[in-house]
Amino acid sequence: MKKHFTAFIVTIVLASSAFGAFRVQQADAHPGRTDAKGGHTCRTNCAKWGLKDGEYHYHHADGTPSKTPPKTGAATQEPSTALKADKLKAPSKGKLSVYFLNVGQGDATYIHTANGDDILIDGGKNEAGTVVVDYLKQLGVKDIEVMVSTHPDEDHVGGLDTVLKQFAVKSVYAPKVAHTTQTYKDFLLAVKSEGLTIKEAKAGVSIPLQGVTAKFAGPGKAYGDDLNDWSAVLRLVYGTTSFLFTGDAEAQAETDMIAAKETLKADVLKVGHHGSDTSTTAAFLKAVAPKYAVISAGADNSYGHPKKTIIDRLTGAKATVYRTDMKGTVTAVSDGTKLTFGTVK
Ligand SMILES: [Zn+2]
Ligand SMILES: [Zn+2]
Q1: What is the pLDDT of residues 65-85, one digit of tens each?
Q2: Suppose 330 and one of 23, 74, 100, 242 were both cysteines; which one would form an S-S bond, judging by CB atoms 3.0 to 4.6 Å apart?
């Protein structure tokens, strides 16, 4: 399953349009973070909605502004989902905590640094958005310093708009790939309504954070409509411990990162593309040489992720494998020298 997104008719437009120049043609409402009361303060195009700048208001289910809270079916509520958040331990103070969140089929990783910064890499599918929000609230997250959208596939970017509406996000990184599905537009709109401009995630770009080194190893090239190979690949270092988050990067991107002599070595590998056999080539695994490998996949997913060949390849390389489909959320805590893993099940 090279592309897990065939249900949508995908039109690729000029890469630049997804970033600063992205314009919303027809806004149904002006999305924005709602507070505990279910309303929010108007920040953009207020006059268009018959509101004053800075006016507090609610939305009816059809998106029109309202002075009073809607009685039922609030527009800000997402559809309910069978997926539930695992019960997790709070981040350890003065340590780096990485949560490979169980979001069913998809990817979402939350990182709390020793300095107290919050990083979210991907947000699972659309219906996982509220679950990711539950996780973040449960873990005491107040705001998010860095959000990374690895690539526009729905099982990664789907829930990020919901997170953007619920939390103040300070910076968003994404590869400069254009994509016009409604899911990706929802994400771009939510970024825009936060007043943010996406920073480009590409090889060589460092995220300015205290106490850790966070640098992208990919993408180092343009990959046309191969969305998975466009994945932002982030290498995070804390003390002597290191992590590599690969999104859905596949063999071509892996080969290119090796050829570009990117530093790939990491103690912990977030295995590419849910353990699909289109990723984790023997050469890439040799370059990363992980002690631990984490696979984020849903139980009984229709893609057959993860593949047995990949599990065998990882264990053959002496990596301890953790799977969210079997163990629920996988947590890795680093004190700067030592790594400790925990699972829900
Ligand atoms: Zn993908
Ligand atoms: Zn994926």
Answers
A1: 777 766 544 444 444 447 999
A2: 100
Ion ligand 2: protein residues whose beta carbon lies under 5 Å? 155, 248
| Residues measured by CB to lie within 5 Å of ligand 1, the ion | 153, 228, 248
What is the CA(314)–ligand 1 centre distance, in A? 21
Cα 306 to middle of ligand 2, angstroms: 11
Looking at the chain, which residues constitute the CATH 3.60.15.10 domain(s)? 89-343
What's the rounded mean pLDDT across residues 148-159?
Answer: 98
- 3 state SS for 24-71: CCCCCCCCCCCCCCCCEECCCCCHHHCCCCCCEEEECCCCCEECCCCC
Pick one of 1.10.760.10, 3.40.640.10, 3.40.50.2300, 3.60.15.10 as the CATH number of 89-343.
Answer: 3.60.15.10
Neighbouring residues of 304: CB distance < 8 A, sequence distance ≥ 6: 1
